[in-house]
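Input record (one chain):
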Amino acid sequence: METGGRQVGEGWRSGVISGASGRWQALIVMVGCFCGLPLFQPSHVLAQSDDSAEYRVKLAFLYRFAQFVQWPSEAYRDPSSPLMICVAGPDPFVGGMEDELRGRTANGHPIQIKRLVVTDDPKACHIIFVRAGEKKVAGKILAGLRGSNTLTIGETKGFADLGGVINMTLEENKMRFEINLDAAMETRLKISSKLLALARIVKTERNP
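The corresponding structure, as predicted from the sequence alone:
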């Protein structure tokens, strides 16, 4: 995958990392190169908790996923409308993390992040990031989004198998992601072949 004229390959996809601080330092360096976010610097992040560092990395992945997915034109009110990233569960991207996205765009649209609340229409979100703590209601969230143009992204083992489109996981100290093509085909989203080439492809589990 190319970004800014640079080839991003196996080093980004499966860089080997060990130990808590070393793990996040390696991921932050790789994602910083991958996404170009200015604050993805080890000295800045290692003073924070591992959880904070983890979500800085995941926010970078969300941003990059948005770059390689195309929404239908009717998904936006007008060409200047923002791409909405909604968080199901506590928002881990508060403060400085959100500031890093200000002024950045995805396919020409500014990016906004908000926490999904009960009164919101989830289909109005372009991306819904389902936190691990929402695992028990993930199936209900996904069922309510069937037929929508919402990109669902999780962080829990089995999320893609349930029908989520993308799932981020840490496996053997490596950050990976998987894409459920069945779920993607139920939307009208177009996922770049470059992104698919980096993913593990899974299918929705069907009850016999």
